[in-house]
């Protein structure tokens, strides 16, 4: 069965990026991202790929772009979110950003893995609101990062079952 999980780190205002980069340096979140996604396909927007700059090892990298000529070694392309979802049929895949792709993928995702960074940054890219009629918080782990001097939490949200007809 296909399982689509959105994985994202956001600040207190749902900010996720500034100038096509991450607003914070949080090594514990990088390690969490690697641990959770390794061995699974990852799906991202072309701008997020540009921001990372290379395919991430140990994962099938799928980049969504409208440009039919866009190519990069070690990367598969998809021309829409639906086309990317079709490429990962039957697998447990992760949608890793950015804002444009998250907005579209909220309609098809089963699960959200959110790192809440407990600080506010001057972001120019944002995650959409999480509608509590559609999503329920399933788990929460609170942490503190001594190296980054930041509080953060790993939170899992699951899609609410559709109401009986
Ligand atoms: P995205 O990474 O979402 O990429 C947008 C691009 O994806 C578009 O320009 C287009 O590529 C392609 N695209 C989007 N929708 C479609 C579609 N329906 N069909 C085909 N192609 C499509 O860009 P954003 O600017 O929204 O987000 C980037 C920001 O997010 C950065 O600041 C980054 O650092 C941040 N980020 C933060 C994360 C976090 O967890 N905090 C994680 C990931 C990113 P093209 O122009 O080539 O056609």
From TrEMBL:
SUPFAM superfamilies: Dihydrofolate reductase-like. Residues 3-159 form the DHFR domain. Its EC number is 1.5.1.3. Keywords: NADP, One-carbon metabolism, Oxidoreductase. Belongs to the dihydrofolate reductase family. GO terms for molecular function: dihydrofolate reductase activity; NADP+ binding. This is Dihydrofolate reductase. InterPro entries: DHFR (IPR012259), DHFR-like_dom_sf (IPR024072), DHFR_CS (IPR017925), DHFR_dom (IPR001796). It comes from the Bacteria. Signal peptide: none annotated. Key enzyme in folate metabolism. Catalyzes an essential reaction for de novo glycine and purine synthesis, and for DNA precursor synthesis. GO terms for biological process: dihydrofolate metabolic process; folic acid metabolic process; one-carbon metabolic process; tetrahydrofolate biosynthetic process. It catalyses: (6S)-5,6,7,8-tetrahydrofolate + NADP(+) = 7,8-dihydrofolate + NADPH + H(+). One of its GO terms (cellular component) is cytosol. It holds the Pfam family DHFR_1. Pathway: Cofactor biosynthesis; tetrahydrofolate biosynthesis; 5,6,7,8-tetrahydrofolate from 7,8-dihydrofolate: step 1/1. It comes from Rugamonas rubra. Gene3D superfamilies: Dihydrofolate Reductase, subunit A.
């Amino acid at each position: 069965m296909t399982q689509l999980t959105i994985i994202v780190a956001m600040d207190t205002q749902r900010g996720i990026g500034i100038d096509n980069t991450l607003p914070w340096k949080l090594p514990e979140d990088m390690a969490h991202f690697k641990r959770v996604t390794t061995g699974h396909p990852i799906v991202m927007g072309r701008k997020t790929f540009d921001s990372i700059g290379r395919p991430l090892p140990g994962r099938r990298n799928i980049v969504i772009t409208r440009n039919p000529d866009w190519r990069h070694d070690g990367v598969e392309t998809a021309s829409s979110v639906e086309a990317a979802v079709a490429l990962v049929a039957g697998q447990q895949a992760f949608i890793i950003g950015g804002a444009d792709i998250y907005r579209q993928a909220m309609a098809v995702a089963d699960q959200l893995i959110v790192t809440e960074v407990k600080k506010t940054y001057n972001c120019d890219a944002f995650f959409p609101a999480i509608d509590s009629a559609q999503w329920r918080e399933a788990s929460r782990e609170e942490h503190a990062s001594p190296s980054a001097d930041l509080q953060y939490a790993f939170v899992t949200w699951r899609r609410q079952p559709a109401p009986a007809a």
